């Protein structure tokens, strides 16, 4: 049974909802149902399926965390630390919602009793993405700290330095093998990698063939593999639990950002700069939909395995995708 989370906050029911058709002559694709953040421009960034049957998202510019119900009711929660730049967000195994504060140097937790922040050992480590681990803890990446960090629900932190210097770890997800998998953005002068860390902290890195591909989002696929988006490589990559990597080019040559497994057995991804969403089958067939999105970024499968939702930065919306 799902637990209810924090009550209160500034609530607005959005009634100006529309289904947007694709451009004339475009491929038959998904329809979008958009819900605008009610308090003004907040730039929604990343989004997660919550433990309460709702979706939760960060608003990097607004210094807030938002909650949206499947029917479109949005509630906003102010982060106590000013200019903290909330970014990655996830549902914890403890029934709460957890998020990172990029510039605040903290990890935040939203529970029925309120919002609590846990200061990091290194306040300048620049945490990026966070996920729940198989051990009941939270795991997150530190871009400047060059480490993967494990944090208990009580806020106790353990750092695991990445062997490669300036790896710039970014996204992280729990894999089907019981380990955590993460992307290494890396500097432009170095090859990029996908990393794997066991719950005990042992790290293995796998080099991607495309040089300076800048892997961004990563997700566990329905086929037992991990799938990742190559922002500068203009590809979607697949890595098996044993470390074998296959890359698939995106027909348009645009840059994918975040990726998630969808309810249709495909992987869904966003193309922030092109204003599109796309899908890739587990056999590598890519389809892109010019869906009139405005800088889509974070993307996730919705509650109860229905539809896809993404955060639209410049559009200031949370968008539900109704698959074709």
Could you describe the 3D structure shown?
The protein has strands at 10-13, 19-20, 31-36, 44-49, 55-59, 64-68, 73-78, 86-91, 97-101, 106-111, 114-119, 127-132, 138-142, 147-151, 157-161, 169-174, 180-184, 193-197, 203-207, 215-220, 226-230, 235-239, 245-249, 259-261, 267-271, 276-280, 286-289, 296-301, 308-312, 317-322. It has one domain: 7 Propeller (Methylamine Dehydrogenase, Chain H). A hairpin with a 4-residue loop joins strand 6 and strand 7. By secondary structure, it is mainly β. The strands form seven sheets. The chain has a five-stranded antiparallel β-sheet, with no helix packed on it. A five-stranded antiparallel β-sheet has the order 2-3-30-29-28, with no helix packed on it. The chain has a four-stranded antiparallel β-sheet with strand order 8-9-10-11, with no helix packed on it.
CATH homology-level superfamily: YVTN repeat-like/Quinoprotein amine dehydrogenase
The CATH architecture classification is 7 Propeller
Task: Give me the strand/helix succession.
Answer: EEEEEEEEEEEEEEEEEEEEEEEEEEEEEE
Mean pLDDT: 89
Q: Stretches where pLDDT falls below 50 for ≥5 residues?
A: 1-27
Helix fraction by DSSP (H/I, runs of at least 4): under 10%
Main sheet attributes: strand count, strand direction, barrel closure: 5 strands, antiparallel
Shape, principal axes of CA atoms:
globular
Number of helices: 0
What is the rounded Rg? 18 Å
Class per helix and strand makeup: mainly beta
Strand content: over 45%
CATH class: Mainly Beta
The CATH topology, please? Methylamine Dehydrogenase, Chain H
The main sheet orders its strands as 1-7-6-5-4
CA(first)-CA(last) distance: 31 Å
Counted beta strands: 30
The tally of structural domains comes to 1
């Amino acid at each position: 049974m799902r637990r209810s989370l924090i009550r209160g906050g500034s609530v607005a029911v959005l009634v100006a909802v529309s289904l947007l058709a694709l451009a004339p002559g475009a491929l038959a694709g998904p329809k979008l149902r958009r819900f605008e953040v009610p308090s003004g421009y907040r730039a929604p960034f990343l989004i997660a399926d919550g433990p309460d049957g709702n979706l939760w998202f960060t608003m990097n510019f607004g210094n807030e965390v938002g909650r949206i119900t499947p029917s479109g009711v949005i509630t906003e929660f102010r982060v106590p630390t000013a200019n903290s730049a909330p970014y990655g967000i996830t549902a914890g195994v403890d029934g709460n919602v957890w998020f990172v504060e990029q510039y605040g140097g903290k990890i935040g937790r939203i529970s029925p009793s309120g919002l609590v922040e846990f200061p990091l050992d290194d306040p300048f480590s620049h945490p990026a993405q966070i996920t729940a681990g198989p051990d009941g803890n939270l795991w997150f990446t530190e871009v400047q700290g060059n480490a993967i960090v494990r944090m208990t629900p009580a806020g106790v932190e353990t750092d695991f330095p990445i062997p490669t210097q300036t790896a710039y770890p970014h996204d992280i997800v729990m894999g089907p093998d019981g380990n955590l998998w993460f992307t290494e953005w890396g500097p432009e002068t170095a090859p990029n990698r996908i990393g794997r860390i066991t719950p005990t902290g042992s790290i293995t890195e796998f080099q991607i063939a495309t040089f300076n591909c800048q892997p961004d989002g990563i997700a566990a696929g329905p086929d037992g593999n991990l799938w990742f988006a190559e922002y500068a490589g203009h590809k979607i990559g697949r890595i098996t639990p044993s470390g074998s990597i296959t890359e698939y080019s995106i027909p348009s040559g645009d840059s994918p950002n975040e990726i998630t497994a969808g309810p249709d057995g495909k992987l869904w991804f966003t193309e922030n700069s092109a204003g599109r969403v796309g899908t890739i089958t587990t056999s590598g067939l890519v389809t892109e939909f010019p869906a009139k999105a405005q800088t889509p970024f974070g993307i996730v499968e919705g509650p109860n395995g229905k539809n896809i939702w993404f955060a639209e930065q410049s559009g200031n919306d949370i968008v539900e995708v109704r698959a074709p």
